[in-house]
Design brief:
Blueprint (H helix, E strand, L loop, with lengths): L13 H8 L8 H8 L4 E9 L9 H9 L2 E9 L3
Parallel strand pairs: 1-2
């Protein structure tokens, strides 16, 4: 598992962050291709911790790029407990 933090203060959108990540070398890894070809899965698992409501738009080009690389996407939103 590889963990990255996306600080809220940097102004980057979730979509922009993912666009950058799928261009990284590990997204093109032969290990990922081998894993998928043998029935395994490669996924981005993103946890979002927020105090208020949260919304994100994922562009079709991003979703197509994830699919082309056979990468899944899991989003889990954790609202602040009151």
């Amino acid at each position: 598992m590889i963990v990255f933090d996306l600080p809220p203060a940097n102004g980057a959108s979730l979509s922009a962050f993912l666009q950058a990540m799928i261009k990284e070398p590990f997204a093109n890894s032969p290990h990922i291709k081998e894993l998928v070809s043998t029935g395994g899965e490669a996924r981005f698992f993103i946890s979002i911790f927020c105090a208020d409501s949260y919304g994100a738009s994922l562009e079709p080009s991003l979703l197509m790029a994830l699919g082309a690389k056979q990468l899944g996407l899991d989003l889990t939103v954790y609202p602040e407990e009151t």
